[in-house]
Design goal:
3 domains, FAD/NAD(P)-binding domain, alpha/beta, Enolase-like, domain 1, about 25% strand, 21 strands, about 475 residues, 15 helices, five-stranded mixed barrel, single chain
Length: about 475
């Protein structure tokens, strides 16, 4: 047995793992975090949320300079793309943030152990160290926070050069002439937007007959219309049956989702973004007898305990929304419950945001879910075309939709496509956490002129009394 004894050993240093480590240390637990990537922050910080947002911002500025600056009286001549500099900026953002987490670990006296962890027995974590050799840690509790990985598509071989996951799409060395994105979810639309803005011809292929499955249908349709205006092409209700990687690019074979004549489409780069699956390989969970779902998620109770005493799990590797901020909340709640506190998280109130432009954001129930459940509801909508701040800055695409219980007026869901949708949604999440009503939002003073006024107006529209439309 190791002479290194811990109250808590966390396997995985992503948003769930590193946040859990910091909170555990704040609560007085002697804590270690095992991470095999060589950098903290997990998929989100290294090859996911953060680098994609850096590229979305850079590509948006490039597109604005080429398409919209003239509207503001700013003339640009000789506009050109320096992709290497853009990528270097993205890499620096990632490096600075991962270094920041290491600083926080030192500040809180958390042991950061670089290597791949596994659980040979209850109370023990074996680490295959990055520098070679092994180390065994003794732990009163073990928390699994290993996250997720891209789901593969049968018949399509990933090489991260021409056929890529989001990881490869964040590191392309040159601008592709044509790109096909398989999957019209969050990752596909965000990365498709990046490369489309920079000049690639982007086609999004989706098996379903709509984009953004899981989000409010009306909002998704509006988002598709806006993205199509920006140049993205969509082939919905279509499945990919094969891919041939040749000398001149990739040939994809497609056919209608419900059956029909196949077709071929050529592309320089293909992005496979059909979802993510829990990453639990090599942990030794089957040998320990840890209960799993038929989709490979680790089963946990309300305290995030697995079926094996002393072993816990959070984040993408357990059921629930596969989002970085959900994993963070999991981590905080899990360690606080270990410490005897009564913390909780409501997965119905985890916001989802797509960082295209305009952004798409939602929380709570969609209109489709309310109809299916037979809930008697009322809806209020307000378009950004009637918002004075949106008019002033030239971002008028989109709408805010507030859904409320018809009898009690309690807010059941809020869905937005529009500028800064993810930020202006935050007040709605807070109102819903407190069980608030559309009237509560409508009666709250909002700064003028601001995008947030659109939320107030949509809440007023629930009662049929918007002011500015």
């Amino acid at each position: 047995m190791s002479d290194k004894q811990y109250d808590l050993v966390i396997i995985g240093g992503g948003p769930g793992g590193y946040v859990a480590a910091i909170r555990a240390a704040q609560l007085g637990m002697k804590t270690a975090c095992v991470e095999g990537r060589g950098a903290l922050g997990g998929t989100c910080l290294n090859v996911g949320c953060i680098p994609s947002k850096a590229l979305l911002q850079s590509s948006e500025k490039y597109a604005d300079a080429g398409r919209h600056f003239a509207d503001h009286g700013i003339k640009v001549e000789g506009l050109s793309l320096d992709l290497a500099t853009m990528m270097a900026r993205k890499d620096k953002v990632v490096k600075d943030l991962t270094g920041g987490i290491e600083f926080l670990f030192k500040k809180h006296k958390i042991d950061y152990i670089k290597g791949w962890g596994s659980i040979p027995a209850v109370g023990s974590v074996k680490v295959a160290l990055d520098g070679g050799g092994e180390e065994t840690l003794a732990a009163k509790r073990i928390l699994i926070a290993t996250g997720s990985e891209s789901t593969p598509l049968p018949g399509v071989n990933i090489d991260e050069k021409r056929v890529v996951t989001s990881t490869g799409a964040l590191a392309l060395e040159k601008l592709p002439g044509k790109m096909v994105v398989i999957g019209a979810g969050v990752i596909g639309l965000e990365m498709g937007s990046v490369w489309s803005r920079l000049g690639a011809e982007v086609t999004v292929v989706e098996f379903l007959d709509r984009i953004l499955p899981g989000m409010d249908g009306e909002i998704a349709k509006q988002s598709q219309r806006v993205l199509a205006k920006q140049g993205l092409k969509f082939k919905l209700a279509t499945k990919v049956t094969g891919a041939t990687n040749g000398k001149d690019g990739v040939t994809l074979t497609l056919e209608p989702a419900k059956g029909g004549e196949p077709e071929e489409i050529q592309s320089d780069v293909v992005l496979v973004s059909i979802g993510r699956r829990p990453f639990t390989e090599g942990l030794g969970l089957k040998e320990l007898g840890v209960a799993m779902t038929n989709r490979g998620f680790i089963e946990v109770d309300a305290d995030f305990r697995t079926s094996i005493e002393g072993i816990y799990a959070i984040g993408d590797c357990i059921p629930g929304p596969m989002l970085a901020h959900k994993a963070e909340e999991d981590g905080v709640v899990a360690v606080e419950r270990m410490a005897g506190q009564k913390s909780h998280i409501d997965y119905n109130l985890v916001p989802g945001v797509v960082y295209t432009w305009p952004e798409v954001a939602g929380v709570g129930k969609t209109e489709e879910q309310l109809k299916e459940a037979g809930v008697d509801y009322k809806a209020g909508k307000f378009p950004f075309t009637a918002n004075s701040r949106a008019r002033a800055v030239g971002d008028t695409d989109g709408v805010v939709k507030v859904l409320a219980d018809k009898r009690t007026d309690k807010v059941l869901g809020v869905h937005i496509v529009g500028p800064l949708a993810g930020d202006i949604l935050a007040e709605c999440v807070t109102v819903m956490e407190f069980g608030g009503t559309a009237e509560d939002i409508a009666r709250t003073c909002h700064a003028h002129p601001s995008m947030g006024e659109s939320v107030k107006e949509a809440a007023l529209a629930v009662d049929g009394r918007p002011i500015h439309v």
